[in-house]
Structures are given as structure tokens and as C-alpha cells.
Amino acid sequence: MYPFGTFPENLAAFADALRRDHGFRVGPGELRDAAHAIDVIDLSDEQAVRHALRPILSSTLADTLAFDQAFTTFFFPGPAGVRQDRMASTRRERGPGAEGREADAAAASHAPHPDDVSVERNAGGGPMTPSESTDDAVEEASLFAPSTYSPLEADNIEAPELPRVARAWRDAARVLVRRVQVGVTRRWQPAARGRRFDFRRTLRASLQTGGEALTARWLHRPRRTPRFVVLVDGSRSMGDDARRALQIAVAMASVTMRIEVFTFSTALRRVTHDVRRAAAGEWRCLNGLEHAWAGGTSIGGCLRDFLRRFGERTVGRDTVIMIASDGLDVGEPETLRDAMRELHRRSASVVWLNPLIESLRYEPTASGMRAARPFIDTFVSVNDVAAFARLARVVRVRAGA
Amino acid sequence: MTDAAAIHDHFRERGFIVDEAFATALQIMLALEKPLLVEGPAGVGKTESAKVLADVLGTELIRLQCYEGLDAMAALYEWNYPRQMLHARLSETDGSSLEEREAYMFSERFLLKRPLLDAITRDRPPVLLIDEVDRADEAFEAFLLEVLGEWQVTIPELGTIRAAHKPHIILTSNRTRELSDALRRRCLFVWLPYPSLAQEIEILHARVPDLSDRIAQQIARIMEVLRGLPLRKTPGVAESLDWAMALMSMHRDRLDASTLAQTLACVVKVHEDHAVIREHQAALAPILGEAATGLDPGGYGLGTDFGVGSVSAPRG
User: Fold this and answer.
1) What is d(CA B108, CA A280) in angstroms, rounded to the nearest whole number?
2) ipTM > 0.85?
3) pTM for the full predicted model
4) What's the CATH architecture for A161-176+224-394?
């Protein structure tokens, strides 16, 4: 079972493999804990070792999903076939539900990605199929099912490069982030003038005046910092406008940490990490976008996918959703309408950046755009930095958000 | 209480079924004295696990329910202001110096312990449940790090209080926002998934002892199907238990289509989900048995075309 002689060596090598191949954040602290943990369990019991190391070395759901595969690969490097077979059978044993879900996947309706409830039930300990266990499983997996169909087949397109942003763009982004007001937090904070009496500080101050509370202290509720979600339509019809939208995303990521960025075409892909790195001044290419770039457009499907996989974590009453798309959707308008209604309901504001508005006498007559229009709070085009700077003044945030 | 099998048995005695992975995580958590972060969908028993753990260890459970705007004061300590005020008034003329009065007013007599401070000053380590930590904001999370990392709390007026014993900490999160890496690094992490079919049947029997095997099977199988559907609100174990109780109180020995329609409210909590289930009702037919021909039209939710000429082939 163990490739190296002593267990500490194995452990160190395993941790190294997790860091290198799966992007785990395993430091000396985790290693020490792991070494301590294996003292209290039976080392000859493979499952026990697995279950003991998993909580220590992984720290997110994605890690947990990747862990089992990594463990198997590291400690049982033999011919893959044997264990793969066992995995497949274990998966089948999970009953009719599992196959129903696979059938669903084949119909490309609901992808079985690890972030999805159908797979979550496996996550505790059940072996994973290899495809689900790759590092970026959570982000990538949806590509496996929906990518089996593409309304318009994508050509070989080179990976888009994330632009460096000029100072003017960053300034405009900063103004936008500051201007957007999404209400106040529920937290109380000391303030010169506020709505609530601050007992603690008043009393404390009174000690300076011999127990006489001469100066009243107050608490107020500070403003909530808005969260942003930028969804960039990377389909071919967007052309250069998609790159401009990425530029906006990078500019915003350079002034706020509370941002999530996604690209979509016929599939959705989270690119927040790359955008943040680009915002920090690194040269970054968006590799492996596959069906999330330069294909056809399935806006409704992708937004629905977004809501299912990331909605819970990224969309709230303090979230401004920015969709950069021309609205030329080839999917069902019904799907888009439902997704937009949901986004509208759950967010503080929905901003749609449509490059076509600039065209003379543009009417949003595309069926997709017509379906989405009622749920858009701010409908503008941002074709240059001046327009982006203006955006801060026109963004409408719904009251009560 | 030292190995996973023992933990499993102890939990089972109290009607809580833990799988091997979770039992081992609890074992490691107790051995390493580290906090355990439990994530998972709603209704899988994250909170319950902490309660049962306290019971198993024969210690107290201290619960800190997180909410937006929860601040250090509400979680840690507060001064008893009315008492301080009163004391300040009464001691005005007793001739003590300002320093003496201040020291007295900010002594432990006037300190109200909130859950975090309470947990680290107990004589024996309690189980501290920090529930739904994702609902608190980032500022609170940063504050929590100090407690989790250092096991000490600083009160400006009193100084630093060190933990006499490390409490057993369980944090739960429903993932309404991402927790910081720093918090995650200080915790062991375990994902608590929905139970498997067999586990769910076991849970139903453990919690509802008089439930017939047949209904338990049916409930668990229907739950498995429902959790695979794109519902707005996916039912958890809590819903299964509610449902089992409801069926028990109706004295049903089996679950058929009309009973399903009458009691679906135990499980489906969002109106739109009824439509989703209607779309996928063919998947439920084999579970309800061949007698399933037509749902009670009086029952709300499911349509009446159920099973009429459209019963699907049994799922292979």
C-alpha cells in the first residue's frame, strides 16, 4: 500500500502531490496534525486512513471531492482498471436514482457536477469517478454534460488574453464600487451621530467626568459593501465586445475583492481566480474555457446553470449582477426569462451591458432580449472608458435591497 | 470514545446515524483538539451532530447562533450596564478613588459572559456549537480566528483570559457565502452529504421506531429521487422524519399515490417544486407500487394524469 518506507515519508510525499497536482493548501501545520492523527487510528485499515486524512488535508468541498481520487492514485498506483471497475460498480450500487441522474445528464438538462446535490450525497466517502475528481472539479464539471451539445459548433479559437487595464478604467471602477449603495449592514458601529445609544462607550467616557455621563456616545449601522458578479458572454457574436467586458471585470477586480467573474457561451465557467491575478498585474490567459468561449450563445441555460451552482454563495441582497451580452440567445426564451426573474428576485440590481444599444435605432427585439428586459434594472452599453465612468451614475439599485 | 466504531455506536444509541467518514472526523477532532467545520446541504443533521456529541461526551452544549450583524460583544461578553450605572451612583459618596471605582466596575462581577467566553472558562470542556457561521460577516470571522487560533480572549478592561480547557468546537455552514481560507485552515473540514439509501432507512428506523419497514423503504427511495431533481428546496433528513411521523399519525401501512399527494407538504416547501415533481412523477410510480393509477385530484400539487397511460417503464 505505501510507496515509501516510513509513514512520515509517505505522508510528506502525499501532501506534496496534493499541493502540486490538486492545488491543496497543505502546510506544515496540516502535516503535523496528520502525523498526530495516524497515531490514533489503525494504519492497516485503508478506509480509516482515508477518513482520517481527509478532514485534515482538505478544506473545501472541491478538495474533499478531489481527495479520494488523489489518495487512490498515490497509494494504489497499480493498473487503473481494477479500481476503476470497483468504482463503477459502487456507483451503480447507489440505486436507481444515480442512473436516473445519468440519464438526465445525457439529456443535457441537469449536469451532474460535484456542486450539485445529486453528487453531494456521494461526497462523504464514496469513491468518485475520475472526471469528477479533478482539481477544478467544481468549476469544470458542468462542461462535461452540457458540452455534449452546442447550438453552434465552436472552431478552434485561441485562449483569450486578459487585458491589462489602464488607470482610467480602474478609477472608473473605483467610482462605481463606491457609488453603488446596497443598504446598511445589521452591525452596529461607533459613530459621532447615530440612531442607537452606546451604553458601553458612554459609561466608559463617564469615568473621565467622575461618573457623570456628560457626553452621549452613539452607534450607527455602516453601509454594506456591495458584492459584484460579472457574467461575460464570450460567444462569437460578441467579438471584441467580450474582451472589453473582460477589461471591465479586471478593472473592477483591481478595486474590490468582493467580485466573482464568469464567462459563458454554451457552457459556464468561473474565471474569478484568473481575473484576480490579472488585476494584480500578472499576464494571464484564460485557458481551457472550451465551451465557455467563442461558441454559440445559450444565455438562459448558462444563467440557470450559474444560479444552480453558484447562486447560493454569490448572489444575495447585496449583490449587483452585471451581464455583458448582446442578448442573441439561441435557447428557449422561457429559460432565460425564468433565470432572469430569479436573478432579479435575489439580487440588489441587475445591470445588462449590451454593446448593440449604440447601434442606431437599436430595439431589443431579439426574443432573448425581450424576455430578459423586464428584469433588468440598468440597461446600457459600455463601449469605452467614458461610458464606463458614466455607469456609476446610472446604475439603479432597487430600494429595500 | 476513542475509535470511530465506538463513536458510531454511541451516536446510534441516541438515534443519530453517522457514517464512517464522519465518525472518523469526530474521532480526529477529539484527538487533535481542533475545531471541526461541517458543511453540507440544509437538513442533514449538522447542528444535531453537535448536540449528540455533547450528550455522548456527557458535557454541556454551548450554542452560538450566528446571524448578520453578530458582533464580538454579543458573542463574547457584555458589561452589565444598568448594574454599573447603579453602582456608579451608589458609590459616588463612599470616598473611594476613581481608580478603585473603575477597577471595581469593570470586574468580573459586572461581566455578562456570552457563549464564546463562557465556553473557554468552564471547568470541563463543553461542546461549543458555532452554528451557521456563514451568516455572520467577514469581520466576525476575523474575530473568531483569534479565539480559535489562540484560545484566549482579550477584554480591554480585564486583560487576557486564557482557556482553562479547549472546548470541542463544531462550526456549521450552509455555504451562503465562501468562508475565508484562514478560518478553514484552523479547522478540520468535513462535508456531510445527504445519507445514502441504506443510511436513510436506518435513520428512519432509529428515530421513528414504530415505522414499518415498507414505509421506511418507500420514503427513502422517494427522497433519493427527489434529491436528484432540480428543486428549489431539496428536502433533507429532517423532512424525511417529519414525513414518517405524519404517515405514522395517519396510520398508513404503505405509501400510495393519494397518500403521497396528501402528505407531500411535509417534504416540498416551495410552490414551484410541485410542478417539477409533476414533471418527473413517472420516476416515483415504481416506488408507490403498481396500484398507482391516478392521484387524488383533491390533493394539491400533483396533476391527475399521473399513471394514466403514461406509466413509464420501470427504472433499470
Assistant:
1) 48
2) no
3) 0.72
4) 3-Layer(aba) Sandwich (3.40)
